Amino acid sequence: MAPRDRNLSTVKQTSSSPPSPPSSDPPAFRAGVGERERGGIHPATARLPRPPLSGEPHSDPNETSTSGDVDRLPNEMSNMNIRDDKDIEDIVVNGNGTEPGHIIVTSIDGRNGQAKQTISYMAERVVGHGSFGTVFQAKCLETGETVAIKKVLQDKRYKNRELQTMRVLDHPNVVSLKHCFFSKTEKEELYLNLVLEYVPETAHRVIKHYNKMNQRMPLIYAKLYMYQICRALAYIHNFIGVCHRDIKPQNLLVNPHTHQLKLCDFGSAKVLVKGEPNISYICSRYYRAPELIFGATEYTTAIDVWSAGCVLAELLLGQPLFPGDSGVDQLVEIIKVLGTPTREEIKCMNPNYTEFKFPQIKAHPWHKIFHKRMPAEAVDLVSRLLQYSPYLRSTASEALIHPFFDELRDPNTRLPNGRFLPPLFNFKPHELKGMPMEFLVKLIPEHARKQCAFIGWSV
């Protein structure tokens, strides 16, 4: 059976369209934003057949589950309170100063009491659009610097949460906000413009590149990208207290020369306060944690960890692990791999969820999901991140010391082209605050400890 394509489309989908195959066009650079896929079908018609992943055998007659059990899943789940993607429509903002050649003039406050400084940006091309607004590549005429400008319609009654979040972020693996300004259209519509550092590629496009070449991504890149994802998440979760809520390859910017990765698009990010409800319809479908599918409103930053686990699996497989066609089908795809969740696991995901109408599907062994040569450490890390219970998932900090990343701690490790790795151990004191010494010893290799002299190494 020819495997169905699992790559997310780089353009919006209608509610009846399956994910588009990888484009043969040259990569269109993206920066500071992620595509938001939409679309879905009715639970009763959810598409179930899934071809084996790399190294995955066809149905085993000794398995507990049967094809009939799997076929019954959509019918059993059709009455579940799972919101479908087709309930949401995209709003696309066109024009408004993003046309190539259009010049935007603004001013920023001078430093150390100096006068305001005028800055001019010339729009070069649109690199992303969706329900959030538009992102375009621009050049600063005064300095020649290339930037990404994210332009979003601003409700005058409210503060912009993304702006509030971006203003406090300062980390090598998080895209930086240079400054911001507001602009108005002829219709008196107010727009917020976030001027962001420009990073030319995404993990999504890197994956597509290797698929197009019919090659596997070098494992060192998967390690590099995943380590930097975990470091970014550890920072925003522990120090800032923010949950990103939309981790996916499209929101992971990659410098193709250094392979430094930066997390972007904080449009869905929020500080999660215990006891305060949050919307459960959040996060792009393929990377949506099961507690969100079960309608949990008091979730934790563990939803980002689940998404990161899905990204790691995709880096290793070259395709999404859970390519659901709708909200319901997403749970079907997860159950095919993890098996049917127990009552206790469902209670951990959403204590208020009382329905339990699933046929018993046996978990598929993780080592059969990946090809035979996949290192055991890689498979183990995926399994630790993709746990039904949010409380059993590794945290982003815990993932950083996993043996899967030990090669990155070797001073002799180089990129495939012979270049040095990007900075991985340039931690600041607030990143490591409260971490025990035995953890730090595992995290930071001896050759890099001079960068963290503030720790006061005694071992």
What does this structure look like?
This protein has helices at residues 67-77, 161-166, 203-212, 219-240, 290-293, 302-317, 327-338, 343-349, 366-369, 376-385, 396-400, 429-432, 437-443; strands at 103-108, 117-130, 133-140, 146-153, 177-184, 190-197, 201-202, 242-243, 252-254, 261-263, 270-271. The chain is of the alpha+beta class. Among the domains are: 103-109 and 117-197, Phosphorylase Kinase, domain 1; 201-424, Transferase(Phosphotransferase) domain 1 (Transferase(Phosphotransferase), domain 1, Orthogonal Bundle), CATH 1.10.510.10. The strands form 3 sheets. A 6-stranded antiparallel β-sheet has the order 1-2-3-4-6-5, with no helix packed on it. α4 (219-240) runs antiparallel to α6 (302-317). The longest helix has 22 residues, at 219-240. The radius of gyration is 22 Å and the shape is globular. It starts with 66 loop residues before the first helix and ends in a 16-residue tail after the last helix. The model is unreliable at 1-52, 54-66 and 83-95 (pLDDT under 50).
Layout of helices and strands, plus pairs?
Layout: H1 67-77, E1 103-108, E2 117-130, E3 133-140, E4 146-153, H2 161-166, E5 177-184, E6 190-197, E7 201-202, H3 203-212, H4 219-240, E8 242-243, E9 252-254, E10 261-263, E11 270-271, H5 290-293, H6 302-317, H7 327-338, H8 343-349, H9 366-369, H10 376-385, H11 396-400, H12 429-432, H13 437-443
Antiparallel strand pairs: 1-2, 2-3, 3-4, 4-6, 5-6, 7-9, 8-11, 9-10
